[in-house]
Design goal:
The complex is a heterodimer of chains A (434) and B (167). Chain A has 434 residues and is of the alpha+beta class. In chain A, 44% of the residues lie in helices and 18% in strands. Chain B has a single domain, classed as HybD-like (Rossmann fold). Classes of the chains: A alpha+beta (434), B alpha/beta (167).
């Protein structure tokens, strides 16, 4: 919706953003050719997860926090497990770590395929949504559906459910899949590897507006491989700090127009997500992924959020390769979990959700009851950079007509694949021209 | 091959009714009938493409009394997207059964015949367990699907009333 204000200003407003998870909007005010006000308005009600985790047992966060999001439950479960295990001083064996990574690969495949082909690609190809796009580009939609289905199947196989897995517990898993069970998905994953390469080639042909993000990037960096299920926070501004120091650098604060907390890195706007992971971890990608990225026109660093759709394709390929590797190395006959006896203390955990770094912190009493909980999801961390991108995008393309400008601004938001449900644990667009 | 799909999340109140019904039907599935349980409606597009007949059991919200069991035949050009979105529950990014049907129609992936057995939901809040009204309707839904599968479907179809879609 666009309207003119009494003082001659103009408002571009999208009441309810489409193709994002959850409920939010956008409001932009323009006066005398200058973008004055930009708000990412998150009106999905707050859900108070952190409050109702207090008083629950230390074994419960993986199941409770998974329900925050239907797209990235594994991110919550994994970060929760790391945090509780850290609080209790328990380390899990390498095969549990490998299975967490395998389950997480399912989530990355599922989430990236959904966003690339059903939510983001219609922006580049000029359609309102996937159903409309499917009439002219059936192959692209079917490619996305096939990839998403493999992700769902991997989640079901390892996690017991395609949505909200139930097999994850503090200390490991309730049951380990057998090598024979895992082997059944290999042919589908092998086809997904070809599909992922085709997906990268396809999205590389889209037209991308020139746009450069100046903000620092933050992502985890793992001891081996590209960070997915764990790692140490690093930034493009040169910081490296342990997960336990996350809240010393990341500060959450409330803004009046949003039900989600915003966050800053040492007082500055920053970005988490695929571009941050890629820019900070290109050297950790497989040779096949690096080659596919270069062939798609990417350099070792990517600061154009409109190109995030290519980066998601590269990450999707990596997740498929990793899933195949982990399954190939899987050995039967090991313990499904280690005991995590409670003790009083504080623990922090982080993992790389499809949308970026997610952080959990829990304080336990001696009996294992949670006395304090903190969850910092990626979309909260990216809210300020989304607003900064919107301001820059609206100013750069201010000569476009309102319809085109509104569309470009919505696209700037969808570049982040924002998950409002996560952030309210948290979209609607309004542009105001004067 | 006839495909019967119980659609819904097992841990989301009455949304579980689809998998509950297929779970009861599976031990006595007639020959030539395959049973599936799925949580994500998007998966259906690839599962049901090219099938001669697919029966989907799903929780619906049409404004009827909770536990009401209905049968809707989705013809090639039957329910519109708007009607579907008012009927079907579940799915992320607002992608429900209706979107799966419309996307399939666009892609030419609709089964030759698609039957929706809907059970009116009372509560789809997170947590395990059907509401009393929906739990009481499960035997009726199981019996109805069984009759659909073993008898002349046209006859069963005549006995069932179409879903009254509120506008």
């Amino acid at each position: 919706m666009t309207h003119t204000m009494k003082d001659g200003g103009q408002v571009l407003q999208v009441g309810m953003l489409a193709r994002v998870e959850g409920e939010g909007g956008m409001h932009i005010e323009i006066r005398d050719g200058v973008v004055e006000t930009v708000r990412l308005e998150i009106f999905e009600p707050p859900r108070f997860y952190e409050a109702f985790l207090r008083g629950r047992a230390h074994t419960e966060p993986p199941d409770i926090t998974a329900r925050i999001c239907g797209i990235c439950p594994v991110a919550y479960q994994t970060a929760a497990c790391w945090a509780i295990e850290a609080a209790c001083g328990v380390e899990v064996p390498p095969h549990v770590l490998a299975l967490r990574r395998l389950l997480y690969c399912g989530e990355w495949i599922e989430s990236h395929a959904l966003h690339m082909f059903l939510l983001h690609a219609p922006d580049f190809l000029g359609y309102d949504g996937a159903v409309e796009m499917a009439a002219d580009h059936p192959g692209a939609v079917e490619l996305g559906l096939r990839l998403k289905k493999v992700g769902n199947e991997l989640m079901s196989l390892v996690g017991g459910r395609a949505i909200h897995p139930v097999n994850v517990r503090v200390g490991g898993f309730y049951r380990l899949p057998t090598r024979s069970e895992l082997g059944r998905i290999v042919p589908d994953l092998e086809r997904a590897r070809d599909d992922a390469l085709a997906a990268i080639r396809l999205v590389a042909e889209f037209d991308f507006p020139e746009f450069t993000q100046p903000y620092p990037y933050l992502a985890l960096r793992a001891e081996r491989g590209y960070a997915i299920e764990s790692g140490t926070p690093v930034t493009t501004s040169g910081l490296t700090f342990p997960v336990s120091d996350f809240t010393r650098h990341i500060t959450e604060h409330h803004v009046a127009h949003s039900n989600a907390l915003q966050a800053t890195l040492d007082g500055e706007i920053y970005v988490v997500g695929p571009l941050a992971r890629y820019t900070l971890g290109f050297d950790r990608l497989s040779p096949t992924c690096q080659e596919a990225a270069r062939a798609a026109g990417l350099e070792e660093s990517c600061r154009n959020p409109f190109r995030s759709i290519i980066v998601r394709g590269v990450e999707l390929l990596y997740a498929v390769e990793e899933a195949l590797r982990i399954i190939d190395e899987w050995v039967d006959g090991r313990v499904a979990f280690v005991d995590v006896p409670p003790r009083a203390g504080e623990g922090c955990g982080a993992s790389e959700a499809p949308r970026g770094t997610i952080f959990h912190r829990y304080v336990l009493d001696g009996s294992g009851l949670i006395t304090d909980a903190q969850i910092v999801p990626p979309t909260s961390q990216n809210q300020a950079s989304i607003e900064a991108d919107l301001r820059a995008a609206a100013q750069a393309w201010i000569d476009l007509d309102d319809h085109e400008l509104t569309h470009r601004c919505e696209q700037a938001i969808r570049n982040y694949d924002p998950c409002i449900s996560c952030a309210t644990h948290f979209l609607d667009l309004q542009v105001d021209r004067s | 091959m006839t495909l019967v799909i119980g659609l819904g999340h097992p841990d989301r109140g009455d949304d579980a009714v689809g998998p509950v019904v297929t779970g009861l039907l599976t031990p006595q599935a007639p020959p030539g009938v395959e049973m599936l349980e799925r949580e994500d409606p998007m998966d259906l597009v690839l599962h049901w493409g090219g099938q001669p007949w697919v029966v989907v059991i799903d929780a619906v919200v049409s404004g009827a009394r909770p536990g009401t069991v209905t049968v809707t035949e989705i013809a090639e050009d039957g329910c519109g997207a708007r009607d579907w979105s008012r009927l079907a529950l579940g799915g992320t990014h607002a992608f429900g059964l209706g979107e799966a049907v419309e996307l399939s129609r666009t892609l030419g992936r609709l089964p030759a015949r698609l039957t929706l057995v809907g059970v009116e939901a009372g509560d789809v809040a997170e947590g395990r367990g059907l509401t009393a009204a929906v739990a009481a309707a499960v035997p009726e839904a199981v019996a109805l699907v069984r009759r659909l599968l073993v008898s002349d479907a046209t006859e069963v179809g005549r006995e069932s009333r179409a879903v009254d879609v509120p506008r």
